[in-house]
Amino acid sequence: TDNILEVKNLKKYFDMGRGSVLKAVDNVSFSIKRGETFGLVGESGCGKSTTGRTIIRLYGATEGQVLFNGQDVHKMGGRDLRSFNRKMQMIFQDPYASLNPRMTVGDIIGEGIDIHKLMAGRQRQERIYSLLETVGLNSEHASRFPHEFSGGQRQRIGIARALAIEPEFIIADEPISALDVSIQAQVVNLMKELQEERGLTYLFIAHDLAMVKHISDRIGVMYLGSLVEVAEGNELYRKPLHPYTQALLSAIPIPDPEIERTRERIILEGDVPSPINPPSGCRFRTRCPKAMPECAQIVPELKEVEPNHHVACLLYS
Ligand code: SF4
Ligand code: MG
């Protein structure tokens, strides 16, 4: 198999006390091929960050498996775990909160090199300088502190830190959401270049479909802890099948006024229900414009309804 990552029936529940359980991730399955970018999209609270954090072992799994290069991540120990900790890295939404304000940029980038004892002294220094140049900064920046940099530059530092120990797989949790629109494209382009040069695989998490459009090969859409649709990027934009994906796409402005004028905008009623007490059957049914009586009884499974196009909706079964 050329899958670097396989997520199988993953569940992550949080005990909220007094018998209530928050089902943040509930039976999610998908796989990512080596060298591809998988975009994971959904509104805040849908479980996309929790999915990412469970994949990289920041959280244990309640049920299900995460296989990285065929090995169960949550059963790893010893040398396998050390190797996993090197091969998978994470980039965060707010690079400022994730960069230690009292450390120099050079030491922030060098921390992983030190932890994994990859190199020291002059060699380590040269490596930090070269990483800074790789992400569009320069060697003089190594002695400065995070607060001296703009949001876009800080995200570049976060990327350099992730690259320092030569990972194979990077989870980017909303890496551009906090940045100005003009800076977002620069960071996405940098990530694409790095991917080509280094053969990286990305799980790219975002809260709207516009942000993942230019980087994702395939996209998964999440709603209330479940994956509702998975397809190649172009296919998903051209032919969204799930009513939730259709609504998300209809909210993205299209630069062509002719299309904009005739396009139907789908407004979803109500709020996202609580993941502590989700609706029976299809979790989207309380907001779905196409809901049918059986949607309250049957939990739709993610099924391949067209080649490489999976959807979890009773309209297609
Ligand atoms: Fe809507 Fe029913 Fe499909 Fe759920 S299963 S998305 S409620 S039509
Ligand atoms: Mg999040």
Automatic annotation (TrEMBL):
The keyword Plastid does not apply. InterPro entries: AAA+_ATPase, ABC_transp_ATP-bind, ABC_transporter-like_ATP-bd, ABC_transporter-like_CS, Oligopep_ABC_C, P-loop_NTPase. PANTHER family: D,D-DIPEPTIDE TRANSPORT ATP-BINDING PROTEIN DDPF-RELATED (PTHR43776:SF7), TRANSPORT ATP-BINDING PROTEIN (PTHR43776). GO terms for molecular function: ATP binding. Belongs to the ABC transporter superfamily. Pfam families: ABC_tran, oligo_HPY. This is ATP-binding cassette domain-containing protein. Gene3D superfamilies: P-loop containing nucleotide triphosphate hydrolases (3.40.50.300). Residues 5-249 form the ABC transporter domain. Keywords: ATP-binding, Nucleotide-binding, Transport.
